Amino acid sequence: MKDVLLTRYSLLPFLYTLFHRAHLQGDTVARPLFFEFPWDVATWELDRQFLWGRSLLVTPVLEPGVDSVTGYVPQGTWYDFYTGSSVNSSGEMLKMSAPLEHLNLHIREGSILPTQKPGTTTEATRGNPLRLIVALSSHATAWGDLFWDDGESLDTFEKGNYSYVVFNVTQNIFTSTVLHASTEATKVTVGTLSIFGVQKPPSKVLLNGQEKPFSYLDNQVLNVSDLGMSLSQGFSLQWL
Fold first, then answer.
1. Range of the domain at 80
2. Are residues 77 and 188 in the same domain?
3. H helices of the chain, where?
4. Banded model confidence at residue 122, pLDDT cuts 50, 70, 90
């Protein structure tokens, strides 16, 4: 239970941004699969799974005493939230291992999720470095965003007391662009960039033009740690 709760804490930046969009545009935060895949008739009657936004597929266990769950994975490439391993689905039901300490989460291709090292409280979590998870599409592109304020004050968007950052990947270049900034963003850093679906091992990684150590795993995950970039500053990272 603690592991699953810490996973939820790590996703607070993503969830908070979804609530910002709900406030600003009326988007749904938790949504049924047919909201995103209305042309897929298999999603119309699904009521045992849901999405956070358009990007995160949640397949919970709803029965006692079982250690696996069967869930529908819509057509496309989805990535395991924890490992970055890809699932290329034609739109099919898949049996997933589901021990007590594990909640099945999959990230939709083309998405970028802002996450954070979890603490024991939301206040403790807010001070930790961010980890940005990039789930590349079949065209090696991705997009995401982050809304950030002090987490307590009312009407921060209306008063302009917030930061809004857009993340984008195209042609092996990740960019972080600050569209609106506040002092709160100077208190948090981007610590790690995890890129899922990098087809070939890079020979080098450049952070703002400077070489940076990296790791590349057999399941096509590129990790770049210790970035130390302030959220209030835009930056770019390229892999060659």
1. 1-108
2. no
3. 2-10, 12-25, 33-36, 122-126, 156-159
4. confident
